[in-house]
């Protein structure tokens, strides 16, 4: 007893001394809060007051200011903060006031990167029924908790809840892992395999423990070793099927209640309680799988076990937190085509449409990102339009939180020509025009201008764009900032016939003034393309070419290697447009542009677009007398056209045929050559057969001793009169009728047409 008294006296005599020293004050990087740094110095004093043991620790306190807004009185709030927080010395009142003023004026929205990180990772599951117990777990009592896992279900639930308390602290995970030698992990795994069907709380606790480990990649090997992922997928599949049975039973109960008047409400409340517990289990199990899916090999195993089908089924739930997790998982899986195809089979778009719009900000954000991934598929874009997503997405353009991602989805939809016109029946275009004109930067956001470029390819959309001063404002901005993408949008607007094209007459001079070597090439290309679209009869192109000295520029760019192919092509198209005017065509012919075009044709003969546009220039020029004579008599353009008459490209053949028909009408010599080539082509198979026919020696003397001469000699096949027909059959080989006789006839599609009819072969 005396010894005990001495010990008590000694303990009482020990004094504990604690000192707190204030430090710096700063603002929270993302929240409306102040961070107060301070230092705690703890000293244990001995019997005589001498320090025996001391320790210093740096700490911080976060003061959250939820009520801070634009109308808050900063002076009063600063005074209140200093009074209530003893860590802040009154002398720092002015500093606190300045920090609060900064917080008040700081933009609330996070940066793009922070937003992405925030939305891409769901929140950890919160505490739930079964986890919350009165006891406080101690890492030193782990052996006791493990023993509880060998008892009855209530004790197992209690033991797992205590272990979970420890596992939720990341600092304990390493020490918990050391208990693996004591069969800690194997005990949990055994209990989960054997008893998960008996208790949802027990299954949830144990899976949550493994989830805590799964949050760190270095523990994934441990989880894989015990095959927890496969077990979780079996549990999820079972719970989803169980939920379907619950719903069927509830539906039958409801029908019976209507008929018999039984109490349906009691059954429904019981069902709701079961669903809440089940969704807690599903949430931790899916989150664990999402963490494990960092490894693509593990993700592939999940896919082979139908993880996509399970997730899409879970979209029918109403729990926001569970839905955020499910949609996040689907978004991660959707980047692979095989997973995307599985989603198509499960009609995922129809299930996602109910979430747009949605009151829950995070769920709406992650759903839009999933839709963006899916919108790369043409069939799914079609489905999005069918289920009515277009007006819903358009409505989100007015919300800054979703504007960017919604615009990206709409951009993908606008890529399909079938859906471009549908935007005219929403308020999309007025919103986009407002965004364009309110943009303060020199360069418009890429997503916005790309979307506008697509929409401008539709005539009805263009009418809405040009309403009021729409075109005037676009031209003013494009010319001010020399924006090539905005000019591309204007170029798309200019391609549509009708009233909108006539609006460009006022801007022809402004556009022509941009055609020079001083401007950026991309911008010049779009200006040239816009001018080339202006096929307006009343436009005096000769005046434009002379006033802005465009002919030397156009001719110079036609030289091979003088400019990039994109610019040269636009120059050729521009020449084709202005050649519709008689005086312009003559001006261009005098400048020597036609030989330059032929030289370019030789250099670009493998490029179908170049060939087609150059031939179109010839087509326009043969309409005019001055240029027609130059093309026919002074160049080899008709010969090139004849060579291209049978090109593989259908458009090239059409333009060639039309051009050659006009040439044949005005020049007899070329008409004969053209007829001859058409005859050759139309009857090519027959001619090849005749030319290639070689008879064996035995066949040559089969009908007598006289040698049969071959059909074809060195001369032209059309110069052989014995191959023509008369009313009695073949014309005599003596050539009694000269080939000149057939000048009275002409070939049409390979057939001879004239005054007399010939019997068919």
Automatic annotation (TrEMBL):
One of its GO terms (cellular component) is kinesin II complex. Residues 1-22 form the signal peptide. InterPro entries: ARM-like, ARM-type_fold, Armadillo, KAP3. Residues 110-126 have a biased composition (Basic and acidic residues). GO terms for molecular function: kinesin binding. Keywords: Signal. Pfam families: KAP. It comes from the Eukaryota. This is Kinesin associated protein 3. PANTHER family: KINESIN-ASSOCIATED PROTEIN 3, KINESIN-ASSOCIATED PROTEINS. ARM repeats lie at residues 592-636. One of its GO terms (biological process) is microtubule-based movement. Residues 110-131 are annotated as: Disordered. PROSITE patterns: ARM_REPEAT. Coiled coil: none annotated.
């Amino acid at each position: 007893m005396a010894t005990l008294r001495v010990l008590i006296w000694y303990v009482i005599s020990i004094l504990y001394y604690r000192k707190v020293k204030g430090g710096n004050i700063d603002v929270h990087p993302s929240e409306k809060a102040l961070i107060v740094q301070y230092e705690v110095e703890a000293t244990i004093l001995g019997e005589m007051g001498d320090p025996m043991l001391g320790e210093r620790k740096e700490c911080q306190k976060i003061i959250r200011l939820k009520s801070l807004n634009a109308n808050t009185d900063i002076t009063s709030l600063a005074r209140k903060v200093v009074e209530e927080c003893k860590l802040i010395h009154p002398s720092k009142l002015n500093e606190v006031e300045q920090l609060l003023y900064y917080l008040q004026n700081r933009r609330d929205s996070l940066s793009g990167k922070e937003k992405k990180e925030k939305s891409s990772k769901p929140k950890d599951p919160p505490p739930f029924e079964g986890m919350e117990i009165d006891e406080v777990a101690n890492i030193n009592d782990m052996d006791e908790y493990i023993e509880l896992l060998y008892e009855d279900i209530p004790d197992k639930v209690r033991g797992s809840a205590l272990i979970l308390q420890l596992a939720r602290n990341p600092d304990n995970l390493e020490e918990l892992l050391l208990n693996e030698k004591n069969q800690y992990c194997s005990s949990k795994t055994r209990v989960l395999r054997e008893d998960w069907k008996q208790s949802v709380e027990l299954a949830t606790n144990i899976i949550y423990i493994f989830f805590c480990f799964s949050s760190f990649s270095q523990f994934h090997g441990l989880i894989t070793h015990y095959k927890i992922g496969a077990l979780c997928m079996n549990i999820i599949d079972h719970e989803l099927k169980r939920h379907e049975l619950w719903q069927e039973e509830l539906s039958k109960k409801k029908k019976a209640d209507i008929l018999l008047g039984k109490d349906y409400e009691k059954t429904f409340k019981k069902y709701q309680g079961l669903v809440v517990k089940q969704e807690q289990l599903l949430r931790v199990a899916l989150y664990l799988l999402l963490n494990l899916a960092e490894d693509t090999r593990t993700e592939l195993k999940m896919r082979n076990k139908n993880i996509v089908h399970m997730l899409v089924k879970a979209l029918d739930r109403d729990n926001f937190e569970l839905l955020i997790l499910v949609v996040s998982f689907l978004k991660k899986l959707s980047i692979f085509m095989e997973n995307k195809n599985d989603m198509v089979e499960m009609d995922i778009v129809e299930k996602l449409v109910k979430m747009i719009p949605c009151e829950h900000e995070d769920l709406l954000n992650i759903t839009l990102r999933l839709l963006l991934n899916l919108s790369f598929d043409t069939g799914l874009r079609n489905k999005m339009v069918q289920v009515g997503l277009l007006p819903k997405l358009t409505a989100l353009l007015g919300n800054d939180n979703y504007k960017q991602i919604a615009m990206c989805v709409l951009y993908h939809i606008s890529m399909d020509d079938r859906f471009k016109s549908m935007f005219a029946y929403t308020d999309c275009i007025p919103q986009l025009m407002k965004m364009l004109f309110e943009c303060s930067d020199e360069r418009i956001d890429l997503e916005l201008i790309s979307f506008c470029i697509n929409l401008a390819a539709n005539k009805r959309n263009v009418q809405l764009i040009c309403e009021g001063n729409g075109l005037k404002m676009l031209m003013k901005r494009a010319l001010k900032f020399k924006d090539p993408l905005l000019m591309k949008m204007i170029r798309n607007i200019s391609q549509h016939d009708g009233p909108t094209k006539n609006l460009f007459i006022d801007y022809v001079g402004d556009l022509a003034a941009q055609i020079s070597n001083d401007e950026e090439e991309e911008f010049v290309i779009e200006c040239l393309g816009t001018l080339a679209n202006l096929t307006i009869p009343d436009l005096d192109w000769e005046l434009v070419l002379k006033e802005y000295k465009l002919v030397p520029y156009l001719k110079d760019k036609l030289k091979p290697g003088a400019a990039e192919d994109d610019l040269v092509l636009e120059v050729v198209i521009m020449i084709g447009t202005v050649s519709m005017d008689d005086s312009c065509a003559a001006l261009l012919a005098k400048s020597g542009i036609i030989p330059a075009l032929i030289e370019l044709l030789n250099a670009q003969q493998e490029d179908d677009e170049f060939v087609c546009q150059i031939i179109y220039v010839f087509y326009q020029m043969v309409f005019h007398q001055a240029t027609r004579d130059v093309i026919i008599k002074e160049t080899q353009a008709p010969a090139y056209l004849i060579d291209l008459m049978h090109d593989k490209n259908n458009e090239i053949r059409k333009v060639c045929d039309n051009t050659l028909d006009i040439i044949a009408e005005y020049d007899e010599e070329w008409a004969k050559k053209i007829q001859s080539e058409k005859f050759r082509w139309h009857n090519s198979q027959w001619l090849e057969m005749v030319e290639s026919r070689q008879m064996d020696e035995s066949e040559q003397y089969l009908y007598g001793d006289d040698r049969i001469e071959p059909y074809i000699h060195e001369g032209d096949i059309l110069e052989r009169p014995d191959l023509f027909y008369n009313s009695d059959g073949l014309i005599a080989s003596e050539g009694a009728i000269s080939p000149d006789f057939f000048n009275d006839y002409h070939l049409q599609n390979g057939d001879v047409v004239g005054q007399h009819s010939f019997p068919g072969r």
